[in-house]
Amino acid sequence: MDGEVWAAWEGVELVGSVQFEQVGGPELLFVRAMVVREDARGRGIGATMFTHVLNTRAATWWLECRTERVAFYGRLGFRAVDEHDIPQRIRALVRRRTDRRQNFMTRTVASPS
């Protein structure tokens, strides 16, 4: 596994992070986690941080999220994918859940900014 963690800071305070990894090569990336500290939410930190990370490399990005996060990722250019359209390499990274709906989303970044 070849992964990276990027962090968002306000002064000396860690306020957010994005963790992602390559899936078989640098052109296919899976977001393991994207979090913003609860008291820092609602100020655009997550969107700014994640947009910056996405624009660091040309790749097809994938993530799995809760239903309440679909609109957020949609605003960042991700689109929901039907279960049968998820590549097996991506599906294998996330255990199947029965306690909530699993929403897989993808976005292709053609060239880094």
Can you walk me through this structure?
With 113 residues, the protein is α+β, with helices and mostly antiparallel strands. The protein has one domain (2-109): Gcn5-related N-acetyltransferase (GNAT) (Aminopeptidase), CATH 3.40.630. 18% of the residues lie in helices and 40% in strands. The chain contains 3 helices and 6 strands, in the order βββαβαβαβ. It has helices spanning 45-54, 70-75, 88-91; strands at residues 2-10, 13-22, 28-36, 59-65, 79-81, 103-109. It has a 6-stranded mixed β-sheet with strand order 1-2-3-4-6-5. Helix 1 (45-54) links the parallel strand 3 (28-36) and strand 4 (59-65). The longest helix has 10 residues, at 45-54. It is globular and about 45 Å long. 23% of the residues are buried. The model has no long low-confidence stretch (mean pLDDT 93).
- Elements, N to C (H/E): EEEHEHEHE
Supply the CATH superfamily name: Gcn5-related N-acetyltransferase (GNAT)
Shape call: globular
Give the CATH architecture: 3-Layer(aba) Sandwich
Summarize the structure.
With 113 residues, the chain is of the alpha+beta class. Helix content is 18%, strand content 40%. Strand 1 and strand 2 (13-22) form a beta hairpin.
